[in-house]
Design a protein that fits this description.
The chain has helices at about 1-15, 30-45. The chain has about 70 residues and is an all-alpha fold. It has a domain at about 1-25.
């Protein structure tokens, strides 16, 4: 979300610099961009995605009790 907000703020500053629109007149666009990013994030499919470290360990990487190489 941070890159989208940074780009939006940069575009609003550019528009103010060229006297097309004031920064504060276009500031509601930031809220719209946040809403769009959140909406797309919640509706995106998670199929095929890998969880970041620390969220959970996949069951295929956990050693099983019957594995002869595992020493207790």
């Amino acid at each position: 979300m941070a890159p989208a907000i940074l780009i939006t703020v940069g575009i609003l500053a550019l528009l103010e610099n060229y006297h097309i629109a004031g920064f504060w007149q276009g500031s509601p666009v930031i809220l719209i961009v946040i809403g769009i990013v959140l909406f797309l994030g919640h509706t995106a499919p998670t199929e095929g995605h890998v969880q970041p470290y620390g969220i959970g360990v996949p069951s295929s990487t956990q050693p099983s009790q019957s594995d002869p190489e595992v020493k207790l």
